[in-house]
């Protein structure tokens, strides 16, 4: 399942990434394999989304979120 498919309040664990270049950027921001991610908010038009990871809130575009593959929690 992709992070972009989660609804507000749902959680998942980072499993892998589909985009190598984007994965480096995301890992620098704390989205490491094995970390739990929770969707906090989704903008009214669906983009961007606010997630909670590694103890802080991060905003991602849907395109960026779609590169994160999760294991459903």
UniProtKB/TrEMBL annotation:
- InterPro entries named in the record: Fe-transptr_FeoA-like, FeoA, FeoA_core_dom, Transcriptional_repressor_C
Reply yes or no: does the keyword Iron apply.
yes
Pfam families for this protein: FeoA
Q: GO terms for molecular function, please?
A: transition metal ion binding
SMART domains according to UniProt: FeoA
Ranges where the Ferrous iron transporter FeoA-like domain occurs: 1-72
- Keywords on record: Iron
**Name recorded for this polypeptide:** Ferrous iron transport protein A
What's the source species for this entry? Mucilaginibacter auburnensis
């Amino acid at each position: 399942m992709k992070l972009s498919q989660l609804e507000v309040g749902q959680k998942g664990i980072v499993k892998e990434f589909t985009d190598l270049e984007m994965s480096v950027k995301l890992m620098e921001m704390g989205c490491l394999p094995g970390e739990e991610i929770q969707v906090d908010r989704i903008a009214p038009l669906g983009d961007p989304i606010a997630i909670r990871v590694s103890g802080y809130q991060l905003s991602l575009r849907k395109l960026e979120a779609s590169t994160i593959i999760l294991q459903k929690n």
